[in-house]
Design goal:
Layout (H helix, E strand, L loop, with lengths): L1 E3 L9 E5 L3 H13 L3 E5 L2 H10 L4 E5 L7 H11 L4 E7 L3 H9 L4 E5 L3 H34 L7 H13 L6 E4 L6 H10 L8 E5 L5 H9 L16 H4 L4 E5 L6 H13 L1 E3 L6 E3 L3 E6 L3 H6 L5 H7 L2 E4 L10 H15 L6 E2 L1 H9 L5 H15 L4 E2 L6 H4 L17 H15 L4 H8 L3 H7 L1
Parallel strand pairs: 2-3, 2-4, 4-5, 5-6, 7-12, 7-13, 8-9, 9-12, 14-15
Antiparallel strand pairs: 1-3, 10-11
Length: 454
Protein backbone atom coordinates (compact mmCIF):
# COMPACT_ATOMS: atom_id res chain seq x y z
CA UNK A 1 0.00 0.00 0.00
CA UNK A 2 1.11 3.56 -0.68
CA UNK A 3 -0.48 6.93 -0.01
CA UNK A 4 -0.22 10.22 -1.88
CA UNK A 5 -1.46 13.24 0.07
CA UNK A 6 -2.70 16.38 -1.61
CA UNK A 7 -0.35 18.37 0.56
CA UNK A 8 -1.15 21.10 3.09
CA UNK A 9 -4.23 20.47 5.17
CA UNK A 10 -5.29 16.88 5.56
CA UNK A 11 -7.96 15.83 3.04
CA UNK A 12 -11.36 14.85 4.39
CA UNK A 13 -11.97 12.40 1.52
CA UNK A 14 -9.93 9.43 0.35
CA UNK A 15 -9.66 7.67 -3.01
CA UNK A 16 -8.32 4.10 -3.27
CA UNK A 17 -6.88 3.12 -6.68
CA UNK A 18 -6.48 -0.60 -7.39
CA UNK A 19 -4.61 -1.94 -10.45
CA UNK A 20 -2.18 -4.83 -10.99
CA UNK A 21 -0.44 -2.79 -13.73
CA UNK A 22 2.16 -0.84 -11.75
CA UNK A 23 2.74 1.75 -14.50
CA UNK A 24 -0.98 2.45 -14.75
CA UNK A 25 -1.25 2.61 -10.96
CA UNK A 26 1.53 5.18 -10.72
CA UNK A 27 0.06 7.21 -13.57
CA UNK A 28 -3.33 7.39 -11.84
CA UNK A 29 -1.66 8.27 -8.56
CA UNK A 30 0.06 11.26 -10.22
CA UNK A 31 -3.18 12.39 -11.88
CA UNK A 32 -5.17 12.51 -8.64
CA UNK A 33 -2.29 13.96 -6.67
CA UNK A 34 -2.29 16.89 -9.11
CA UNK A 35 -6.06 17.13 -8.52
CA UNK A 36 -5.30 17.51 -4.79
CA UNK A 37 -7.16 14.33 -3.86
CA UNK A 38 -5.84 12.12 -1.05
CA UNK A 39 -4.90 8.82 -2.74
CA UNK A 40 -4.27 5.29 -1.49
CA UNK A 41 -2.96 2.68 -3.95
CA UNK A 42 -3.07 -1.12 -3.99
CA UNK A 43 -1.57 -3.56 -6.56
CA UNK A 44 -4.19 -6.26 -5.93
CA UNK A 45 -7.69 -6.87 -4.68
CA UNK A 46 -6.32 -8.64 -1.58
CA UNK A 47 -4.29 -5.60 -0.53
CA UNK A 48 -7.23 -3.31 -1.36
CA UNK A 49 -9.55 -5.34 0.86
CA UNK A 50 -7.10 -5.02 3.78
CA UNK A 51 -7.09 -1.24 3.26
CA UNK A 52 -10.89 -1.11 3.20
CA UNK A 53 -10.96 -2.95 6.54
CA UNK A 54 -8.53 -0.47 8.18
CA UNK A 55 -9.11 2.88 6.47
CA UNK A 56 -12.12 5.04 5.72
CA UNK A 57 -12.31 5.07 1.92
CA UNK A 58 -14.87 7.24 0.15
CA UNK A 59 -14.30 6.01 -3.42
CA UNK A 60 -12.52 2.94 -4.77
CA UNK A 61 -11.34 3.09 -8.41
CA UNK A 62 -10.47 -0.46 -9.42
CA UNK A 63 -9.46 -2.34 -12.55
CA UNK A 64 -12.10 -4.89 -13.49
CA UNK A 65 -9.85 -7.67 -14.84
CA UNK A 66 -7.08 -8.59 -12.38
CA UNK A 67 -5.41 -11.95 -11.66
CA UNK A 68 -6.91 -13.78 -8.73
CA UNK A 69 -9.74 -11.65 -7.40
CA UNK A 70 -11.45 -9.47 -10.02
CA UNK A 71 -12.63 -5.91 -9.54
CA UNK A 72 -16.25 -7.10 -9.43
CA UNK A 73 -15.44 -9.60 -6.68
CA UNK A 74 -13.52 -6.88 -4.84
CA UNK A 75 -16.58 -4.63 -4.98
CA UNK A 76 -18.82 -7.37 -3.58
CA UNK A 77 -16.43 -8.08 -0.71
CA UNK A 78 -15.64 -4.37 -0.20
CA UNK A 79 -19.31 -3.46 0.15
CA UNK A 80 -19.46 -5.95 3.00
CA UNK A 81 -16.58 -4.46 5.02
CA UNK A 82 -17.11 -0.85 3.89
CA UNK A 83 -20.71 -0.42 2.73
CA UNK A 84 -20.41 3.36 2.34
CA UNK A 85 -17.57 3.21 -0.21
CA UNK A 86 -18.51 4.00 -3.82
CA UNK A 87 -16.89 1.82 -6.51
CA UNK A 88 -15.83 2.88 -10.02
CA UNK A 89 -14.62 0.15 -12.39
CA UNK A 90 -11.98 0.51 -15.12
CA UNK A 91 -12.60 -1.87 -17.98
CA UNK A 92 -11.42 -2.64 -21.50
CA UNK A 93 -13.91 -2.25 -24.34
CA UNK A 94 -14.47 -6.02 -24.60
CA UNK A 95 -15.66 -6.35 -20.99
CA UNK A 96 -18.27 -3.59 -20.93
CA UNK A 97 -20.99 -6.18 -20.27
CA UNK A 98 -19.25 -7.11 -17.03
CA UNK A 99 -19.15 -3.43 -16.06
CA UNK A 100 -22.88 -3.10 -16.73
CA UNK A 101 -23.42 -6.13 -14.48
CA UNK A 102 -21.41 -4.38 -11.79
CA UNK A 103 -23.56 -1.24 -12.14
CA UNK A 104 -26.62 -3.38 -11.44
CA UNK A 105 -24.93 -4.62 -8.27
CA UNK A 106 -24.28 -1.11 -6.99
CA UNK A 107 -21.18 0.29 -8.72
CA UNK A 108 -21.19 4.07 -9.02
CA UNK A 109 -19.76 4.21 -12.56
CA UNK A 110 -17.39 2.56 -15.00
CA UNK A 111 -14.80 3.99 -17.42
CA UNK A 112 -13.43 2.25 -20.49
CA UNK A 113 -9.76 1.93 -21.39
CA UNK A 114 -7.95 3.71 -22.84
CA UNK A 115 -9.58 6.51 -20.85
CA UNK A 116 -8.99 10.24 -21.00
CA UNK A 117 -7.80 12.06 -17.92
CA UNK A 118 -10.78 14.45 -17.90
CA UNK A 119 -13.18 11.50 -18.11
CA UNK A 120 -11.80 9.59 -15.15
CA UNK A 121 -11.30 12.70 -13.00
CA UNK A 122 -14.90 13.77 -13.65
CA UNK A 123 -16.23 10.36 -12.63
CA UNK A 124 -14.19 10.31 -9.41
CA UNK A 125 -15.16 13.90 -8.57
CA UNK A 126 -18.85 13.12 -8.96
CA UNK A 127 -18.54 10.08 -6.71
CA UNK A 128 -16.64 12.09 -4.08
CA UNK A 129 -19.31 14.81 -4.22
CA UNK A 130 -21.98 12.19 -3.63
CA UNK A 131 -20.11 10.85 -0.61
CA UNK A 132 -19.64 14.40 0.68
CA UNK A 133 -23.37 15.04 0.39
CA UNK A 134 -24.25 11.83 2.24
CA UNK A 135 -21.69 12.56 4.98
CA UNK A 136 -22.94 16.14 5.36
CA UNK A 137 -26.55 15.00 5.63
CA UNK A 138 -25.59 12.41 8.24
CA UNK A 139 -23.68 14.98 10.27
CA UNK A 140 -26.56 17.45 10.10
CA UNK A 141 -29.05 14.79 11.18
CA UNK A 142 -26.83 13.89 14.13
CA UNK A 143 -26.49 17.56 15.04
CA UNK A 144 -30.23 17.98 14.71
CA UNK A 145 -30.95 15.03 17.00
CA UNK A 146 -28.62 16.44 19.65
CA UNK A 147 -30.30 19.82 19.28
CA UNK A 148 -33.75 18.29 19.65
CA UNK A 149 -32.77 16.54 22.83
CA UNK A 150 -31.65 19.79 24.46
CA UNK A 151 -34.09 22.46 23.29
CA UNK A 152 -36.74 23.34 20.76
CA UNK A 153 -34.82 26.11 19.05
CA UNK A 154 -32.77 25.06 16.01
CA UNK A 155 -29.52 26.94 15.61
CA UNK A 156 -25.85 26.76 16.56
CA UNK A 157 -24.57 29.96 14.98
CA UNK A 158 -22.83 32.54 17.17
CA UNK A 159 -25.84 34.94 17.30
CA UNK A 160 -28.12 32.09 18.36
CA UNK A 161 -25.69 30.81 20.98
CA UNK A 162 -25.42 34.30 22.44
CA UNK A 163 -29.18 34.68 22.51
CA UNK A 164 -29.70 31.28 24.16
CA UNK A 165 -27.15 32.21 26.82
CA UNK A 166 -29.31 35.24 27.60
CA UNK A 167 -32.41 33.03 27.69
CA UNK A 168 -30.74 30.71 30.20
CA UNK A 169 -29.75 33.70 32.31
CA UNK A 170 -33.15 35.45 32.41
CA UNK A 171 -35.45 32.39 32.47
CA UNK A 172 -35.16 31.60 36.22
CA UNK A 173 -36.14 35.17 37.15
CA UNK A 174 -39.68 36.58 37.26
CA UNK A 175 -38.79 39.64 35.17
CA UNK A 176 -40.93 40.66 32.20
CA UNK A 177 -39.16 39.99 28.90
CA UNK A 178 -39.63 41.87 25.62
CA UNK A 179 -38.65 39.93 22.49
CA UNK A 180 -37.91 42.09 19.47
CA UNK A 181 -37.22 40.89 15.96
CA UNK A 182 -38.56 40.58 12.45
CA UNK A 183 -41.57 38.42 11.63
CA UNK A 184 -40.72 34.75 11.27
CA UNK A 185 -37.66 34.75 13.54
CA UNK A 186 -39.21 32.39 16.09
CA UNK A 187 -40.27 34.65 18.94
CA UNK A 188 -42.84 32.19 20.29
CA UNK A 189 -40.20 29.42 20.39
CA UNK A 190 -37.96 31.68 22.47
CA UNK A 191 -40.88 32.55 24.76
CA UNK A 192 -41.56 28.84 25.27
CA UNK A 193 -37.86 28.24 25.98
CA UNK A 194 -37.98 30.94 28.67
CA UNK A 195 -41.06 29.29 30.19
CA UNK A 196 -39.71 25.73 30.16
CA UNK A 197 -36.39 26.86 31.66
CA UNK A 198 -38.09 28.71 34.51
CA UNK A 199 -39.66 27.55 37.75
CA UNK A 200 -43.04 27.78 36.01
CA UNK A 201 -42.32 24.94 33.57
CA UNK A 202 -45.09 22.72 34.96
CA UNK A 203 -47.66 25.52 34.78
CA UNK A 204 -49.67 26.83 31.78
CA UNK A 205 -48.06 28.59 28.83
CA UNK A 206 -50.75 30.70 27.13
CA UNK A 207 -50.02 32.48 23.84
CA UNK A 208 -52.08 35.38 22.49
CA UNK A 209 -51.55 37.03 19.10
CA UNK A 210 -52.72 40.59 19.69
CA UNK A 211 -52.74 41.32 15.95
CA UNK A 212 -55.01 38.37 15.14
CA UNK A 213 -57.81 39.43 17.49
CA UNK A 214 -60.14 42.30 16.55
CA UNK A 215 -59.80 45.33 18.83
CA UNK A 216 -63.42 44.93 19.94
CA UNK A 217 -62.81 41.55 21.60
CA UNK A 218 -59.11 41.73 22.56
CA UNK A 219 -59.86 43.06 26.05
CA UNK A 220 -62.44 40.35 26.72
CA UNK A 221 -60.06 37.66 25.45
CA UNK A 222 -57.30 38.83 27.78
CA UNK A 223 -59.31 39.59 30.92
CA UNK A 224 -62.47 37.52 30.47
CA UNK A 225 -66.03 38.77 30.81
CA UNK A 226 -69.12 38.42 32.96
CA UNK A 227 -72.47 37.18 31.73
CA UNK A 228 -74.36 39.99 30.01
CA UNK A 229 -71.30 42.24 29.72
CA UNK A 230 -72.08 42.73 26.02
CA UNK A 231 -74.27 41.29 23.30
CA UNK A 232 -73.45 37.61 22.94
CA UNK A 233 -71.93 37.25 26.43
CA UNK A 234 -74.34 34.52 27.53
CA UNK A 235 -72.11 33.21 30.34
CA UNK A 236 -69.08 34.11 32.37
CA UNK A 237 -65.79 33.38 30.62
CA UNK A 238 -62.24 33.27 31.93
CA UNK A 239 -59.66 35.33 30.08
CA UNK A 240 -56.12 34.42 29.11
CA UNK A 241 -54.68 35.98 32.27
CA UNK A 242 -56.73 33.69 34.48
CA UNK A 243 -55.88 30.67 32.35
CA UNK A 244 -52.16 31.52 32.65
CA UNK A 245 -52.21 31.96 36.45
CA UNK A 246 -48.90 30.76 37.99
CA UNK A 247 -47.59 30.24 34.46
CA UNK A 248 -46.50 32.40 31.52
CA UNK A 249 -48.57 34.60 29.23
CA UNK A 250 -47.01 35.29 25.85
CA UNK A 251 -48.33 38.48 24.23
CA UNK A 252 -47.28 38.34 20.59
CA UNK A 253 -47.45 41.42 18.31
CA UNK A 254 -48.04 43.62 21.34
CA UNK A 255 -47.30 46.69 19.22
CA UNK A 256 -50.76 46.18 17.64
CA UNK A 257 -52.60 46.48 20.98
CA UNK A 258 -55.05 49.39 21.16
CA UNK A 259 -54.50 52.12 23.74
CA UNK A 260 -57.52 51.33 26.03
CA UNK A 261 -56.29 47.74 26.42
CA UNK A 262 -52.76 49.04 27.03
CA UNK A 263 -54.07 50.97 30.05
CA UNK A 264 -55.60 47.84 31.59
CA UNK A 265 -52.50 45.78 30.84
CA UNK A 266 -50.33 48.37 32.60
CA UNK A 267 -52.39 47.95 35.76
CA UNK A 268 -51.97 44.17 35.66
CA UNK A 269 -48.21 44.56 35.34
CA UNK A 270 -48.09 47.03 38.24
CA UNK A 271 -50.61 45.51 40.65
CA UNK A 272 -51.05 41.89 39.45
CA UNK A 273 -54.83 42.38 39.55
CA UNK A 274 -57.73 43.16 37.18
CA UNK A 275 -61.50 42.89 36.71
CA UNK A 276 -63.32 40.95 34.02
CA UNK A 277 -65.14 42.99 31.39
CA UNK A 278 -68.50 43.93 32.90
CA UNK A 279 -67.43 42.75 36.37
CA UNK A 280 -66.66 44.41 39.71
CA UNK A 281 -64.73 41.62 41.45
CA UNK A 282 -60.98 42.24 41.59
CA UNK A 283 -58.97 39.15 40.68
CA UNK A 284 -55.34 38.65 41.68
CA UNK A 285 -53.04 36.56 39.54
CA UNK A 286 -49.40 35.46 39.41
CA UNK A 287 -48.39 35.56 35.75
CA UNK A 288 -45.07 36.10 34.07
CA UNK A 289 -45.33 38.23 30.94
CA UNK A 290 -43.24 37.63 27.83
CA UNK A 291 -44.14 40.10 25.08
CA UNK A 292 -42.99 40.21 21.47
CA UNK A 293 -43.11 42.66 18.59
CA UNK A 294 -41.62 43.26 15.17
CA UNK A 295 -42.11 47.00 15.60
CA UNK A 296 -39.80 49.64 17.03
CA UNK A 297 -41.75 50.25 20.25
CA UNK A 298 -39.60 53.25 21.18
CA UNK A 299 -40.57 54.79 17.85
CA UNK A 300 -44.22 53.89 18.46
CA UNK A 301 -44.01 55.71 21.81
CA UNK A 302 -42.67 58.84 20.10
CA UNK A 303 -45.45 58.62 17.53
CA UNK A 304 -48.08 58.41 20.28
CA UNK A 305 -49.21 54.92 19.34
CA UNK A 306 -47.88 53.15 22.43
CA UNK A 307 -47.92 54.23 26.05
CA UNK A 308 -44.51 55.19 27.38
CA UNK A 309 -45.17 53.86 30.90
CA UNK A 310 -46.24 50.50 29.48
CA UNK A 311 -43.17 50.37 27.27
CA UNK A 312 -40.87 50.74 30.27
CA UNK A 313 -42.83 48.10 32.18
CA UNK A 314 -42.42 45.64 29.32
CA UNK A 315 -38.83 46.54 28.49
CA UNK A 316 -37.32 45.24 31.75
CA UNK A 317 -35.24 42.72 29.81
CA UNK A 318 -35.05 43.06 26.04
CA UNK A 319 -33.88 40.24 23.77
CA UNK A 320 -33.26 40.84 20.06
CA UNK A 321 -33.80 37.84 17.79
CA UNK A 322 -31.36 37.81 14.86
CA UNK A 323 -32.85 37.58 11.36
CA UNK A 324 -31.91 34.50 9.36
CA UNK A 325 -29.70 36.51 6.99
CA UNK A 326 -27.43 37.25 9.98
CA UNK A 327 -27.09 33.59 10.96
CA UNK A 328 -26.56 31.84 7.64
CA UNK A 329 -24.64 29.05 9.42
CA UNK A 330 -28.02 27.78 10.65
CA UNK A 331 -29.57 27.50 7.18
CA UNK A 332 -28.34 23.91 6.49
CA UNK A 333 -29.48 22.68 9.89
CA UNK A 334 -32.89 24.33 9.56
CA UNK A 335 -33.29 23.09 5.99
CA UNK A 336 -32.66 19.46 6.97
CA UNK A 337 -34.91 19.82 10.02
CA UNK A 338 -37.86 20.98 7.91
CA UNK A 339 -37.02 18.54 5.11
CA UNK A 340 -37.33 15.61 7.53
CA UNK A 341 -40.50 17.02 9.09
CA UNK A 342 -42.33 17.43 5.79
CA UNK A 343 -40.91 14.28 4.25
CA UNK A 344 -42.36 12.31 7.18
CA UNK A 345 -45.62 14.23 6.90
CA UNK A 346 -45.89 13.44 3.18
CA UNK A 347 -44.66 9.82 3.47
CA UNK A 348 -41.54 10.49 1.41
CA UNK A 349 -37.97 9.25 1.81
CA UNK A 350 -35.47 11.94 0.85
CA UNK A 351 -31.67 11.77 1.19
CA UNK A 352 -31.20 15.52 1.56
CA UNK A 353 -30.42 18.48 -0.67
CA UNK A 354 -28.03 18.76 -3.60
CA UNK A 355 -24.99 20.98 -3.33
CA UNK A 356 -26.53 23.43 -5.82
CA UNK A 357 -29.78 23.64 -3.83
CA UNK A 358 -27.92 24.36 -0.61
CA UNK A 359 -25.76 27.00 -2.31
CA UNK A 360 -28.92 28.72 -3.57
CA UNK A 361 -30.43 28.66 -0.07
CA UNK A 362 -27.27 30.11 1.44
CA UNK A 363 -27.24 32.90 -1.15
CA UNK A 364 -30.86 33.93 -0.54
CA UNK A 365 -31.46 36.66 2.08
CA UNK A 366 -34.68 35.15 3.54
CA UNK A 367 -36.77 38.30 4.14
CA UNK A 368 -39.45 36.08 5.73
CA UNK A 369 -36.81 34.47 7.99
CA UNK A 370 -37.26 30.94 9.40
CA UNK A 371 -40.95 30.89 8.51
CA UNK A 372 -40.09 31.54 4.85
CA UNK A 373 -37.44 28.81 4.90
CA UNK A 374 -39.94 26.36 6.39
CA UNK A 375 -42.48 27.16 3.67
CA UNK A 376 -39.77 26.77 1.01
CA UNK A 377 -38.80 23.33 2.31
CA UNK A 378 -42.41 22.15 2.49
CA UNK A 379 -42.86 23.22 -1.14
CA UNK A 380 -39.61 21.51 -2.15
CA UNK A 381 -40.58 18.23 -0.45
CA UNK A 382 -43.98 18.19 -2.15
CA UNK A 383 -42.56 18.99 -5.62
CA UNK A 384 -39.46 16.78 -5.42
CA UNK A 385 -39.72 13.78 -7.78
CA UNK A 386 -36.38 12.16 -6.99
CA UNK A 387 -34.73 11.14 -3.75
CA UNK A 388 -32.82 14.41 -3.30
CA UNK A 389 -34.17 17.97 -3.25
CA UNK A 390 -32.63 19.89 -6.16
CA UNK A 391 -32.42 23.58 -6.95
CA UNK A 392 -35.41 23.33 -9.32
CA UNK A 393 -37.59 22.22 -6.41
CA UNK A 394 -36.99 25.51 -4.57
CA UNK A 395 -39.21 28.61 -4.96
CA UNK A 396 -38.23 30.80 -7.94
CA UNK A 397 -36.92 33.67 -5.82
CA UNK A 398 -34.65 31.32 -3.85
CA UNK A 399 -33.13 29.61 -6.87
CA UNK A 400 -32.41 33.00 -8.49
CA UNK A 401 -34.97 32.94 -11.32
CA UNK A 402 -34.54 36.29 -13.17
CA UNK A 403 -38.30 36.52 -13.62
CA UNK A 404 -38.73 36.64 -9.86
CA UNK A 405 -36.21 39.40 -9.15
CA UNK A 406 -37.38 41.96 -6.61
CA UNK A 407 -39.59 44.65 -8.07
CA UNK A 408 -39.14 48.35 -7.47
CA UNK A 409 -41.67 51.15 -7.28
CA UNK A 410 -41.22 54.65 -8.62
CA UNK A 411 -43.16 57.07 -6.45
CA UNK A 412 -43.48 60.76 -7.40
CA UNK A 413 -42.37 63.28 -4.79
CA UNK A 414 -45.39 64.65 -2.98
CA UNK A 415 -47.42 61.44 -3.05
CA UNK A 416 -49.45 61.21 0.21
CA UNK A 417 -48.13 58.61 2.65
CA UNK A 418 -51.47 56.80 2.75
CA UNK A 419 -51.34 56.38 -1.04
CA UNK A 420 -47.73 55.13 -0.85
CA UNK A 421 -48.68 52.54 1.75
CA UNK A 422 -51.53 51.27 -0.39
CA UNK A 423 -49.28 51.11 -3.50
CA UNK A 424 -46.62 49.10 -1.66
CA UNK A 425 -49.21 46.73 -0.18
CA UNK A 426 -50.87 46.15 -3.55
CA UNK A 427 -47.54 45.48 -5.31
CA UNK A 428 -46.48 43.07 -2.56
CA UNK A 429 -49.82 41.26 -2.78
CA UNK A 430 -49.23 40.93 -6.51
CA UNK A 431 -45.84 39.30 -5.89
CA UNK A 432 -47.34 36.91 -3.31
CA UNK A 433 -50.30 36.08 -5.60
CA UNK A 434 -52.77 37.52 -3.10
CA UNK A 435 -51.36 35.74 -0.05
CA UNK A 436 -52.07 38.40 2.60
CA UNK A 437 -50.29 36.53 5.37
CA UNK A 438 -47.05 36.25 3.37
CA UNK A 439 -47.35 39.86 2.21
CA UNK A 440 -47.71 40.98 5.83
CA UNK A 441 -44.60 39.00 6.78
CA UNK A 442 -42.57 40.58 3.98
CA UNK A 443 -43.74 44.08 4.91
CA UNK A 444 -43.31 43.56 8.66
CA UNK A 445 -46.92 44.46 9.47
CA UNK A 446 -49.95 42.67 10.88
CA UNK A 447 -52.29 40.88 8.48
CA UNK A 448 -55.20 42.97 9.68
CA UNK A 449 -53.28 46.11 8.72
CA UNK A 450 -53.47 44.98 5.10
CA UNK A 451 -57.25 44.65 5.32
CA UNK A 452 -57.44 48.11 6.92
CA UNK A 453 -55.19 49.82 4.35
CA UNK A 454 -56.79 48.37 1.22
Amino acid sequence: MSRASAGGAESLQTLLVVDDDRANLQSLERIFKRERIDVLTAPSARVALDILRRERVDVCLTDLMMPGTSGLELMRAGKTVSPETEFILMTAFGTVEKAVEAMKEGAWDFVTKPFKRIQIVRSVRRALDQRSLVNENRALRAQLESTRSGREIIGNSLPMRQMMEMVSQVAPSSATVLLQGESGTGKELVARAIHTSSGRAGQPFIAVNCAALPESILEAELFGHEKGAFTGATQRRQGRFELADRGTLFLDEIGEMNVPTQVKLLRVLQESEFERVGGTQTLRIDVRIVAATNKDLAGEVEAGNFREDLFYRLNVISLGLPPLRERKDDVPLLAHHFLKRYADKNNKTLAGLTKEAMEAMLAWQWPGNVRELENAMERAVVLCRGDTVGVDDLPPQVRGNPESDRKYLTIPIGTPLDDIERMVIRETLGMTKGDKKLAAQLLGIATRTIYRKI
